[in-house]
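tokens incoming
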């Protein structure tokens, strides 16, 4: 190892200086031999915590959950080419959901790069580039700290997302100048052009049946309250963005202008002459739609901080590039300056909005009645958790095909729910553990499908080691329900006996949890559902470790 002279440090110590300057105190990772200099530097840095995982996807998803819970960047350490490859699946979710991750990977020594060496490829950055805003390999030791700082800049600039920096092991060990690190000032979110805001206000006042579609970016801008004020000012019907892309709750369900989730057949959407879409993705298609998801008779206004989202599938009549929280601020000012026009439109719209709200409430009541007549369902699990959990609980949900029913049952609030729109399974449990580390005084609950649990069960071991009291509720239907649904769709509703790739029976989820040192319980009847969930939650908090509660659930109708 090279000698370190006066006023010099190793490249690894330059990395830690950047992390400290950026306020980072936790790294998630699974190291190998190329991280030796980094691990040695961390040994002498008690203010920085390296959280060891047993699988790279766990490290990425824990960092992902940590970043979402803190609203800042999180750091994940992957081991050279093979570690990068293993972490890419869960990095896909962070990329889809615009989560600011700094992925710090350590590579083989520069003297053997390009020679086909062990665990290396000629261009490892090419692997990460499709899922990152920036992917770069450091070329010189004195650039190590500079490149890590640049990764933070890239990850946090709007639109946010992962950034990847690959540092060869010899550059981490080399001596570099020992100057401190000063983070670059963070870029401010984009503000819409005043003319675009005025045009949006004009369209809202001219429309007879305007609908506001609020997306996850409204929640990330901490602008739910502003959205409520605008809906109240203008008597707007409000729907959430489609559940496939909804990653946070952007608008409270109990607010009287909320009328459900976006669907082209929803009476609010079907009857709208103006759709104002704030901070939502339009759309991430699962399969070819049978008809356009934006009704042809409705004008579309799309507001998003990522200009690439505007018109990606459906060109808007008015594209507005800007942070939705700032747009809401400016729009409220523009509307309040036109009081006479506002009062006129309020009277005309109020009855329509009230009727839509009554319809939505009737649908939820019907779902509850139907659930009472069946065995345990995802809807009932949501209802029961809503009764048991404290109001400030954070729920991290990865229920996949059971998600719509669970969300209908669970009274989610802005700031109280995290989801992923990526679809790469195994995110839920490690993301919940990462969120618990970010907010240690807050109850955190993961609600996951049985298939999702077993993509990353190793996360439970890390949760035990870190003393993380997370309740993990497994919605156990003993199958890959999405696979079954696809086969049924292909065959016109029928599932032929012996279809492969569906059955997941025979797994004792509670026993798997206990094998990693976590707690494990099982619900055996509908009557004990509430008691077992309550006990699992109590034990997780009391014992300071994850508790898995296995809940056998019936399929929801129509899945």
């Amino acid at each position: 190892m090279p000698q370190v002279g006066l006023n010099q440090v190793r490249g690894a110590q330059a990395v830690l200086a950047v992390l400290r300057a950026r306020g980072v105190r936790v790294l998630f990772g699974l190291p190998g031999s190329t991280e030796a200099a980094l691990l040695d530097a961390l040994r002498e840095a008690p203010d920085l915590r390296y959280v060891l995982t047993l699988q790279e996807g766990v490290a990425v998803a824990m960092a992902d959950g940590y970043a979402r819970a803190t609203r800042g960047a999180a750091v994940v350490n992957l081991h050279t080419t093979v570690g990068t490859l293993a972490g890419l699946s869960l990095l896909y979710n962070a990329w889809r959901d615009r989560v600011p991750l700094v992925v710090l990977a350590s590579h083989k020594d520069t003297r053997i790069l390009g020679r086909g060496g062990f665990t290396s490829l000629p261009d490892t950055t090419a692997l990460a580039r499709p899922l990152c805003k920036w992917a770069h390999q450091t070329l010189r030791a004195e650039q190590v700290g500079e490149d890590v700082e640049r990764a933070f800049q890239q990850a946090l600039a709007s639109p946010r997302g992962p950034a990847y920096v690959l540092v060869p092991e010899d550059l981490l060990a080399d001596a570099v100048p020992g100057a401190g690190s000063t983070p670059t000032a963070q870029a401010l979110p984009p503000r819409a052009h005043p003319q675009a805001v005025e045009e949006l206000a004009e369209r809202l006042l001219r429309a007879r049946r305007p609908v506001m579609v609020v997306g996850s970016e409204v929640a990330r801008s901490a602008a739910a309250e502003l959205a409520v004020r605008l809906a109240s000012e203008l008597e707007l019907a409000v729907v959430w963005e489609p559940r496939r892309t909804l990653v946070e709750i952007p608008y409270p369900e109990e607010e009287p202008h909320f009328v459900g989730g976006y669907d082209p057949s929803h009476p609010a959407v079907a009857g709208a002459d103006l759709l104002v879409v704030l901070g939502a993705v339009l759309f991430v298609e699962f399969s070819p739609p049978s008809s356009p998801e934006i009704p042809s008779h409705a004008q579309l206004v799309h507001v998003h901080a990522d200009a690439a989202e505007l018109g990606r599938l459906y060109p808007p009549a008015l594209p507005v590039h800007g942070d939705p929280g700032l747009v809401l601020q400016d729009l409220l000012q523009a509307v309040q300056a036109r009081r006479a026009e506002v009062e006129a439109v309020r009277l005309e719209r109020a009855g329509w909005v009230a009727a839509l709200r009554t319809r939505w409430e009737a649908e939820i009541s019907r779902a509850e009645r139907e659930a009472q007549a069946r065995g345990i369902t995802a809807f009932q699990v949501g209802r029961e958790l809503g009764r048991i959990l404290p109001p400030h609980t954070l729920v991290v949900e990865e229920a996949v095909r059971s998600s719509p029913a669970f969300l209908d049952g669970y009274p989610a609030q802005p700031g109280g729910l995290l989801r992923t729109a990526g679809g790469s399974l195994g995110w839920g449990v490690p993301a919940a553990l990462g969120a618990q580390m970010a907010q240690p005084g807050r109850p955190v609950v993961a609600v996951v499908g049985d298939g999702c649990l077993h993509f990353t069960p190793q996360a439970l071991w890390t949760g035990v080691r870190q003393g993380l009291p997370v309740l993990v509720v497994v919605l156990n239907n003993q199958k890959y329900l999405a696979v079954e649904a696809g086969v049924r769709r292909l065959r016109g509703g029928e599932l032929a006996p012996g279809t492969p790739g569906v059955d997941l029976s025979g797994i004792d989820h509670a026993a798997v949890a206990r094998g990693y040192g976590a707690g494990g319980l099982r619900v055996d009847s509908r009557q004990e559902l509430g008691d077992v969930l309550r006990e699992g939650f109590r034990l997780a908090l009391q014992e300071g470790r994850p508790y898995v509660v296995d809940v056998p659930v019936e399929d929801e109708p129509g899945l």
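note: Residues 237 and 257 are 5 Å apart (CA to CA).
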